[in-house]
Every structure is written in C-alpha cells, then in structure tokens.
Amino acid sequence: MPFARTAPLRAELERALPTRPFAVTFWDGTTVAATEPDSPTFTVNAPAGLAHVLRAPGELGLGRAYAQGLIEADDLDAALRLLDTFEPPPLRPRQLVRLGLALLRATGLTAPPRRPATELRLRGERHTIARDRRAVRHHYDAGNDFFKLFLDDSMTYSCAYWKSGASTLEQAQAAKRELVCTKLALEPGMRLLDVGCGWGSLAIHAAAEHGATVLGVTLSEPQVLEARSRAGAAGVADRVEFRVADYRELGGERFDAISSIGMVEHVGEERIDLYARTLAELLVPGGRLLNHGIAKLADFDARDEGPFSERFVFPDGVPLPLSRIVRAVEQAGLHTTHVEGLAEDYARTLTEWISRYEGRYDEAERLAGVERARVWRLYLHAARQGFETGWASVYQVLAHHP
Fold first, then answer.
1. pTM, to two decimals
2. pLDDT band at 303 (very low <50, low <70, confident <90, very high)
3. Residue-wise DSSP of 109-162
4. Fold of 129-400
C-alpha cells in the first residue's frame, strides 16, 4: 500500500531532521511539513525520484531526478539557495541505516533507475582536443534555434555589460562587444583572433565597426555555419573567416589582437599554462590579449563545477581562480595591464536570459526535449545564484605582448 511505504520514511525524516527549512510532498499526497516559514516544497512525483537520491546522494542524484521530472520544486531559486546553505545535523550510524532502509522501502524498486538520456560521461584524458570536441558538441547539441530562445538578437553567449547604462539585453551586449574592441585598441587592417567565437557576434562587430580582419574559431560546426550566414548578412564575409578548430591547431599564424570570451572556463587546470603560452605565441610583439571568463571565488580545490554541471551542462568545464589565470598569462611572457570584474553584470544578464527562457519554455521542450529543457532551466537559475552569492565572478584580463 503506497501510504504504508512512505510512512516509515516520513517518520525517519522527521526524527533525523527536527528542524526543516523545507517541506517534502510524496507521490501519494502525504507530506513532511517544513518547520520554518516561507520554505520551499520539494514534490517527489514517483519512487524513482527517491531512488536517484539513494543511488547518488547529493547534487547528482537530485539533478538526475529533476531532469526526468521525478522531483519538482515550487520555488526553484529558493530550493537552490537551500541546497547551497543548508547543513543537516550529523547523523549517527544507526540513524543512517534506518533512513536508508526507509528509503529503500518507500521506493519499492529492486533495480537502480535509468540515468537521464542527456547525461554525458566522458572517458580518457581530460582536455585533449578530441575530448574537448565531444564536450562542446554535448553542450550545443540542443541546436542553434534553442539558444535563440533566450539570447539577444546577436546571439552573444557571454556576460553583457550593463555599466554603460544599457537598459536592454541587446544594448548591453553591444556595449560589451564595443568594450572588448576598445580594450584591444582595434584599428582598420589589424588582424584579430576570436577564440571560442560562438555564433560570430564579436567577430562581425570588430570587422563592421573597427575595420579588422578576423578569424573566429569554435569546436561547434553548427555555430560556424550560423556565424558564416550572419557575417554574410552583415556584409563582412570578405573580412571574417570562421573555422571549426581548436586554439591548439593555429600554429604559425600571427595576430595583432586576440579575444577569448567565455572560453577559458573550458581549458582547465590541466591546460591553462599551455593555453596562455599558445595565445602568447600567436600574438605579434605589441599585440594585445583580452581574456574574458568566469573565475571562482570559492571551492578552489574542486576539479570541476560539480557533478551536475559536469554530466549535463559543461563537461570538463571548471572556472579557475583569477590569480591562476593571471599567473598563466604572465608566465607566458605577457604583461597584465588591466583587470575588470563583472559579477553583477552577469547576474543581470542571467536574469534576462531566464526571463526569456521561461517565457518560451514550451518551445524549449519542443526543440530540445523535456529532459534537456529542464536541465537548462536548472542550470540558468543555479548560474545566477553563483554570481549573486559570491561563489564566482567574471573578469576581463587585458594583457599585451611586450
């Protein structure tokens, strides 16, 4: 009988957690009430949701259950804040055994639940070119039309710049592109390399507004096809080239300036020094590098962003501390001349993306499927929390080749 199955679990939860800043509603309609006001409610829609948590306690199990619609939260932002701050009391071994047995009885399952289809488990050495290509393909498998649901018209997929007084996302992204070009001191005839060029917004702006000749590289073929189309529509196809290529495959070429926007997070501790040396070697003497990327302000020893992001959103992605990025740049022989933090700008950018995404959520499900649509909803809200709580920031590091 369903009610009998959940009764022991409810009793054990109430006993183990006498103070509960959350409520839990089970598939049979019964509830473990919160003990604090204004607490989020988690709804477990099926026994398999608990089975995911039992199989992988913590972030990964909850993420799997959420992706499959087995667990819901009535206030996603409040639930994420809770998961980030709640510290349950220590449990004695006997309590853990009772809680585990109650979980097993409540699920009634004899086999582990299947993993979500959108989960990726990479194998082999991290940050080889081949593995990085696979990781990037996983992130962009949702398709160009999916990203158009929440990005601005230029499809600029990085932190916008609101300090200029912009009032719309389009204005703030245009201000960011102009900020990058100004810091790089682009002039007509200069050659710019845009590493991780996305759908080409910065490269097109640099060519159209500053007369630069630009090479943009990305590991995503759909991005390159879209970027080429956009360059043609903007009338700069003769000055902008887009390639499916890795930054490590550009040996022998030289550039007056290099922009790397939102790409360094995918380099990792394993390759950050190689990354900096490679870009330094591509710069002519006197050339400038603008590295724009997320940097962590906590959890400095973590090798990834957490199991949920690692499996579902940004495989092998990990923001490094700002100090580590600057050290790599300077050890490569470049001189750092300016650093600017944009944490508040990214929190506001994500708020804009979330608003657009939620407003077109049904279309997101149609384009990417239910699981991926739910993964991205969770990712966008969690990312905003990271910038609002001070877990991470975004920094533009400007350096030049002496």
1. 0.94
2. low
3. -SSPPPPPTT-----SSTT-HHHHHHHHHHHHTT-HHHHHTTS-TT---S----
4. Rossmann fold (3.40.50)
